[in-house]
């Protein structure tokens, strides 16, 4: 079998609406009226009050873009019953996703020299760069090696016992990732108007004249993709054992593993080294370019989960399902479970980005049930009760700092500046141990890992009941149903402030929804 399709994404947006105008605050210390640093502040808000931004940016893109992509796939699959007690499902799939192209060639990428020592703008019309040669029309080399094997196994070890063993393995490619690149490449010079400047000893920026004169750097592009980008994929494997028990019960234990490869990592290779923001422009590795975000496929992830489930089939007016999951996930990716588009703190130390995934959840318990009492009792006859309970540990958070005392951006881009670990355990206190983190020394990156703060646990219970009443007349009925979410009105905190130098450090910022009760009355005739 196979399939083929051609995607077209046409975008018409008002040119002014796509504009972006911003100031970014000074990140190491405030300045006095003469432009001298006020040592020891470390607050970007102080610089805002004094009117001294670190950088100013202006951007607006083309009014019309027309993107094209070709996707094709083919597969073979076979079910093979080896024995009466063993069945195999075998398959192999091939997929090809072409990088997006713009109908009129309005896209731009950067040709990057080895070691990020230089960059040059490339476009579909001028697609040959000085460092790596000719580029494809989509400005990213196509990835044509996307073979995805699949295998499934079902085995019944004992003919006379109701026990089944199941296992599976497969590859899955993330071809939709190209959708995210197209609009960003189309919003780059020379097909977008952009300007950016940072404060310096030669010219101190103020809010009053932040846009009056723009820098003379040659390359003002702020985003680029590795031309050798390869589509990321996940390998997933599972094993489960299911057995029937007395009283209509079914027990199942299982294991699930997933490994992500070639995941997205975002970095800023042209950041200024830690130091004074007033000399950031002079300390860039590539002097004729602004700080730009570079996206490549060099991330990875690993997920392991053990599951136990017990199910009661509907019998004597009752059914239920309870499942417990223990899991752990680790990654260093910025877009796949890493917190979502987080730029690496230190471009020279990507190993420091490896930590718990933002969705990591060590324990999770869920229970759902349905009760329909037998027709013998008049009081509860025809009533139906259902509900559920969810209990899970929190997802981890990252200890951060307000502003960026290390000036790792050098461009006004804060990125993901992290706090300094004191060596004390992060667990403890009302939510976590506040003494486990502190401010990093000025001019140095914080050494706290990603997602080392335990998030708050979550608990909620739901309940609903209803009944259908027969009315006089043919085919006339009245249905009554009442549903309640979070019936105990238990407050589960869903967010914490982990910025160590903020006034609400360690305090909750969000809570789950309060109890709601909804009643529905319906007449059918």
Describe this structure in words.
- With about 525 residues, the chain is mostly beta strands.
- Helix content is about 5%, strand content about 45%.
- It has helices spanning about 45-50, 180-185, and strands at about 1-10, 20-25, 30, 35-40, 55-60, 65-85, 85-95, 100, 110, 120, 130, 135, 145-155, 165-175, 190-200, 225, 235-245, 250-265, 295-315, 320-330, 355, 365-370, 385-390, 420, 435-440, 460-470, 475-485, 495, 510, 515-525.
- The strands form seven sheets. It has a 17-stranded mixed β-sheet that branches. It has a three-stranded antiparallel β-sheet with strand order 2-5-15. The chain has a two-stranded antiparallel ribbon with strand order 3-4.
- It is globular, with a radius of gyration of 29 Å.
- The chain starts with a strand and ends with a strand.
- Mean pLDDT is about 85; it is low at about 1-5, about 10-20, about 25-35, about 35-40, about 335-340 and about 410-415.
Keywords:
525 residues, mainly beta, 17-stranded mixed beta sheet, three-stranded antiparallel beta sheet, 2 helices
Shape: globular
Provide a count of the helices: 2
Distance between the termini: 48 Å
Strand content: over 45%
Oligomer: single chain
Give the low-pLDDT segments.
1-6, 8-19, 23-35, 37-42, 337-341, 408-415
Helix content: under 10%
Radius of gyration: 29 Å
> What kind of sheet is the major sheet?
17 strands, mixed
Average of the residue pLDDT scores: 83
Number of β-strand runs? 30
Q: Structural class, please?
A: mainly beta
């Amino acid at each position: 079998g196979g399939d083929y399709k051609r995607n077209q994404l046409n975008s018409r947006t008002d040119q002014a609406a796509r504009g972006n105008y911003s100031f970014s605050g000074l990140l190491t210390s405030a300045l006095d009226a003469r432009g001298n640093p006020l040592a020891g502040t470390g607050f970007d808000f102080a610089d805002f009050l004094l009117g001294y931004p670190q950088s100013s940016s202006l951007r607006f893109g083309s009014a019309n873009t027309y993107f094209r992509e070709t996707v094709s796939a083919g597969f073979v699959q076979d079910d093979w019953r080896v024995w009466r007690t063993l069945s195999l499902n075998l398959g192999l799939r091939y997929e090809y996703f072409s990088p997006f192209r713009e109908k009129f060639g309005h896209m731009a990428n950067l040709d990057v020299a080895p070691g990020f020592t230089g960059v040059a703008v490339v476009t579909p019309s001028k697609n040959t760069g000085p460092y790596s040669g000719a580029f494809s029309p989509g400005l990213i080399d196509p990835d044509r090696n996307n073979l995805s094997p699949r295998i499934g196994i079902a085995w019944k070890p004992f003919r006379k016992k109701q026990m089944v063993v199941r296992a599976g393995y497969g590859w899955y490619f993330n071809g939709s990732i190209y959708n995210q690149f197209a609009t960003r490449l189309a919003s780059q010079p020379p097909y977008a108007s952009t300007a950016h400047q940072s404060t310096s000893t030669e010219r101190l920026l103020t809010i009053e004249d932040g846009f009056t004169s723009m820098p003379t750097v040659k390359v003002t592009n702020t985003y680029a993709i590795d031309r050798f980008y390869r589509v990321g994929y996940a390998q997933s494997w599972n094993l489960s054992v299911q057995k029937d028990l007395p009283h209509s019960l079914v027990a199942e234990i299982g294991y699930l593993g997933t490994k992500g490869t070639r995941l997205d990592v975002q970095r800023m290779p042209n950041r200024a080294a830690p130091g004074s923001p007033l000399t950031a422009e002079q300390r860039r590795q590539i002097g004729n370019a602004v700080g730009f975000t570079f996206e490549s496929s060099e991330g990875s992830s690993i997920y392991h989960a053990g599951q136990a489930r017990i199910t009661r089939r509907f019998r004597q007016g009752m059914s239920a399902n309870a499942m417990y999951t223990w899991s752990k996930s680790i990654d260093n990716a910025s877009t796949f479970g890493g917190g979502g588009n987080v730029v690496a703190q230190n471009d020279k130390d990507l190993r420091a980005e490896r930590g718990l995934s933002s969705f990591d959840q060590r324990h999770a318990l869920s229970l759902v049930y349905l009760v329909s009492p037998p027709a013998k009792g008049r009081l509860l006859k025809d009533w139906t009760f259902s509900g559920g309970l969810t209990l899970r540990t929190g997802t981890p958070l990252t200890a951060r700092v307000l502003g960026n005392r290390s000036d790792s951006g050098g461009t006004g881009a804060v990125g993901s500046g992290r706090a300094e670990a004191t060596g004390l355990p992060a667990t403890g206190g009302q939510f976590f141990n506040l003494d486990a983190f502190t401010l990093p020394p000025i001019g140095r990156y914080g050494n706290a890992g990603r997602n080392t703060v335990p998030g708050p646990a979550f608990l909620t219970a739901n309940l609903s009941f209803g009944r259908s009443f027969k009315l006089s007349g043919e085919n006339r009925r009245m249905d009554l149903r009442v549903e309640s979410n979070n019936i105990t009105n238990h407050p589960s905190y869903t967010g914490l402030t982990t910025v160590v130098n903020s006034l609400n450090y360690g305090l909750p910022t969000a809570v789950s929804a309060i109890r709601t009760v909804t009643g529905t009355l319906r007449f059918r005739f």
